[in-house]
């Protein structure tokens, strides 16, 4: 048990003393690899639900005798970020809540969980606003899509000091608005360009109104991205006219959409940025991920049967606490054997935007190396 | 005891100018007249976008536009363009080979230096010296090989065959004659070297005071050293790009040193200082700089020296003047 908590227990705490204690300290307690969770309230039981793939996901808190204070200490490897919720049981009812004492959240495409940051985790300074970095500009556009028979939003990031006299590389990012909102995308682009770690580049942020269907190997989506978005951008912005200078990326189903589009439209994008791809497949029998995954599993199974090279360079990242880790690890040798140059990165993290944010520097600077060795302004 | 600077006639080397500009006081201090020539070719397609610089110096500024001039020459003489590209393809291949060599020898030197700093022994010191010597040898050979490529290109490309090149050089000479100083801004150091060399700018400005910062200062040294201790990819192995113009000798200049180097890591600092000795490794951060004028060296506060013992100390003028 955490030492401070032990001291509190020894003094036979009353509710007011417990509340004062909880107000005063940053929770959960992290002591090296030990993490202590605490809950105070009139409930029957408290359980920890975490999203670490492979571990029992429900562990019961212990109650301090004579109080409504519950606690649980577990081991978490260094530099980990672990998502969790608290299961509260009372009067035969149970519900999942965010940890009321923890200010940190991890967001994913479906919502948010509390997150514990293990010892040694360092928030990346390149994801914080830097007063010295010149700011790029974002523009909101509408694009008429024949593929979908509808108008689609397209946000375009232009780097600081954008000039039509220069030609820029292009990155198209699925769920780009979410990358901007939850993963500090624009700040990171400004900073990495300022630090010369990536070149000044144009980034197109797409956002699908129906991502789980459109991203699941939908031919219309590939047409939209390769035959509508790219030519539309080419007409309006000063871009390098080469697949080698174009990238396509996304997270979760966005990574599936990126791989599917690259395979359906060869050489349009020679750089892929695939984060925590939902690359579910079956070697035998059915999958158990629900009907939304049917087209994904069909697609990945087909690809595994006859793998081809989707792009020249592929960056793949995945959290080791994700249930998708097995699928991503399985894809890596296949993509590498296709002849693509591949960089694969794992982190002790889950399926969330902060994980994807924290891997952006490594992925983007590898796919689009900047001129930091040669420029001294 | 290290060798002194070579002190040229009138050269002023400054730190980065964006956040703490020091150019104007330097110009004023040296009684520079009302019209100055500038080189902003390191900014590439943004060459000549110098409104901040103009506002700062309070003088008439004539940008020599050497980036655009050489682009024009290339458009007129494709053979010259192709020869230049061929040359840089060779240099690129050579650089890749050099980086592979460096990765191994630098790793061993770093490892030995680390061990020597924590538990020094005489035998280890000898092994360390040999490792650093191996790094120096690879640096030197690389610099020579690049110089040979440039030399063979110069022999092949006789400027007399290219009227467009001669025209631009003549125009530049005429512009420079009407100016009282040459100012070279930072930016892309390889492009700066290439454009200054192709258009013979420093030959044409031989008698002029020169004020240069960041990459502009680096190109004036004997060997241009690229450096970054924490790049997002790779080990951060500093490397010699190629020989510079050698206007200033005995120094390796490190603009933005605090941002780019682990100056608190005694192993990295010591290795850098020992590798490039007897040249001095000088950190040129914002506000730093030094002036070299006939037998006189003046150093701005904040200009620092990387030392062989792993420390970083203030550079003192009197210790280093020739």
Secondary structure layout:
The complex is a heterodimer of chains A (377) and B (322).
Chain A: H1 3-10, H2 15-24, E1 29-31, E2 34-40, E3 45-50, E4 58-60, E5 62-63, E6 69-75, E7 81-90, E8 93-97, E9 105-108, E10 111-117, E11 137-145, E12 150-158, E13 170-173, H3 176-182, H4 185-194, E14 202-206, H5 211-214, H6 219-236, E15 246-251, H7 253-264, E16 271-275, H8 294-305, E17 313-319, H9 325-337, E18 341-347, H10 353-358, H11 360-367, E19 375-376
Helix pairs in contact in A: 6-7
Chain B: E1 10-14, H1 23-29, E2 35-39, H2 51-57, E3 60-63, H3 66-76, H4 78-118, H5 122-156, H6 163-177, E4 182-184, E5 187-188, H7 189-198, H8 201-204, E6 210-213, H9 215-218, E7 223-226, E8 239-243, E9 251-255, H10 257-260, H11 266-276, E10 280-284, E11 289-293, E12 296-299, E13 304-306, E14 312-314, H12 317-320
Parallel strand pairs in B: 1-6, 2-3, 2-4, 4-6, 9-10
Antiparallel strand pairs in B: 1-11, 7-8, 10-13, 11-12, 13-14
Helix pairs in contact in B: 3-4, 4-5, 4-11, 5-11
